[in-house]
Hints:
α1 (about 10-25) crosses α4 (about 55-80) and α3 (about 35-50) packs antiparallel against α4 (about 55-80). This protein has helices at about 10-25, 25-30, 35-50, 55-80, 85-100, 115-130.
Amino acid sequence: MGNPKTPYDPVREAIRVMHEARTRGEWEREMTHETLLPFLAEESEEVADAIRTGASDEELKKELSDLLLQVLFHAEIAAERGAFTFDDVAQAFVDKLRSRAPYLFDGSEGPVDKETQDRLWEEGKAREKA
């Protein structure tokens, strides 16, 4: 499960396993962003179907893990060419929310009404485009 001196981190393990698969698996080594597109579309649709049909939590979790595989795979391919890593993708997510949902980072607590959320989201998008 990992080094006994370090707590187990399933995200780090997923990144490691994807790297191993890409390094060792012939099929994985042959994949590109483009050749993975049908799988990305398929896995996205399977997540949507699981939600639409009221699938069990276990089934939804399985489908989400298949979608995560796609994100890991694309990030690994990008890392190989020195473009970005999975950590960079995660940081881009945090940066987007920092810009568009600042209440998640300002130390405030409690619910935020939808009108405020919509306004802040649009303001963040506008700043990002400027």
